Automatic annotation (TrEMBL):
Name this protein carries in UniProt: Inositol-1-monophosphatase
Documented EC number(s): 3.1.3.25
UniProt keyword terms in alphabetical order: Hydrolase, Magnesium, Metal-binding
UniProt-annotated binding residues for Mg(2+): 64, 80, 82-83, 207
Substrates-to-products reaction catalysed: L-histidinol phosphate + H2O = L-histidinol + phosphate; a myo-inositol phosphate + H2O = myo-inositol + phosphate
Residue ranges crossing the lipid bilayer per the database entry: none
Needed cofactors: Mg(2+)
Pathway in which the depicted protein is active: Amino-acid biosynthesis; L-histidine biosynthesis; L-histidine from 5-phospho-alpha-D-ribose 1-diphosphate: step 8/9
Species for this entry: Murinocardiopsis flavida
Single Gene Ontology MF annotation: histidinol-phosphatase activity
GO biological process: inositol metabolic process; signal transduction
Superkingdom of this protein's organism: Bacteria
Similarity comment: Belongs to the inositol monophosphatase superfamily.
Length: 259
């Protein structure tokens, strides 16, 4: 029931955003001049919020643009109305609406809808993951030096300088790097074998909440450092075997709050 509602809301917001992509401009900036917001980021989140909280008024809310709101039902919606805003702004296709439903602190359902790509990813905890209704299973591990690894960069200059230094260590050790520009799509790509691994520092639950469930249900291990869960300090994802190799490469490189 939570999945159905999330799916309907994500598809509806995806249509709104797809229809409004041409001619979109920067409305505002947040943490840095490159951390942009468009009118559609706000309009899409507002539409999703009306739809979800209209149907379930007791639920809590965490949205990238709309902030946090407490609830009474034990269910919390974690929403990124447009993951990949810079792609959206440039008329690119790699952006997605991401909606996760959390029950008592655990994500139980997730939808990542990428209308410009014609791809909708869904997952429920214990119920598997799918893309456009087809079951998803991540392919087996490859060695780190044969792995295509996705990553992303935060918006603040200090954080980026550290991320560039980490990348300088990672790049010579892997097949190649991809920077798609939407963390949710990185994790969904991993679930279907379009990359082998992913890591990023400084993301938030709205970026990866839904997509981490898609990836996990497709057999991908999603975590943080030293047995921790995925978090804003670090998200690492890969199938078991490669996950450990990627973890051990990243673990000594420090957090970007250090740099
Ligand atoms: C960003 C994208 C990007 C990632 C950034 C995120 P936004 O989200 O997911 O790929 O590298 O860390 O902030 O701002 O486009 O929703
Ligand atoms: Ca995002
Ligand atoms: Ca966003
Ligand atoms: Ca943003």
């Amino acid at each position: 029931e939570l999945l159905e509602l999330a799916l309907a809301a994500a598809l509806e917001a995806g249509r709104l955003a797809a229809d409004g992509q041409a001619g979109i401009r920067v409305l505002d900036t947040k943490s840095s001049p490159t951390d942009v917001v468009t009118a559609m980021d706000r309009a899409a989140e507002e539409q999703i919020r009306r739809r979800l909280l209209g149907a379930r008024p007791g639920d809590a809310w965490l949205g990238e643009e709309g902030g946090e709101e407490a609830g009474t039902s034990g269910v919390r919606w974690i929403v990124d109305p447009i993951d990949g805003t810079v792609n959206y702004l440039y008329g690119r296709r790699e952006w997605a609406v991401s909606i996760a439903a959390e029950v008592d602190g655990e994500i139980v359902a997730g939808v990542v809808a990428a209308p410009a790509l014609g791809e909708t990813f869904t997952a429920t905890r214990g119920g598997g993951a799918s893309v456009n209704g087809e079951p998803l299973r991540a392919p087996g591990a490859v060695a780190l030096d044969m792995a295509l690894v996705g990553t992303g960069f935060g918006y603040e200059a200090r954080r980026r300088a550290h991320q560039a230094a980490v990348l300088a260590t990672v790049l010579p050790r892997v097949r190649d790097i991809r920077r798609v520009g939407a963390a949710a799509l990185d994790l969904c790509d991993l679930a279907r074998g379009r990359i082998n691994g992913y890591y990023e520092r400084g993301t938030n639950a709205w970026d990866w909440g839904a997509a981490a469930l898609v990836a996990a249900e497709a057999g991908v291990r999603v975590g943080g450092l030293r047995g921790a869960g995925p978090g804003s300090d670090l998200v690492i994802a890969a199938v078991p075997g490669l996950f450990e190799e990627l973890h051990d490469l990243l673990e000594p490189l420090g957090a970007d709050t250090d740099g």
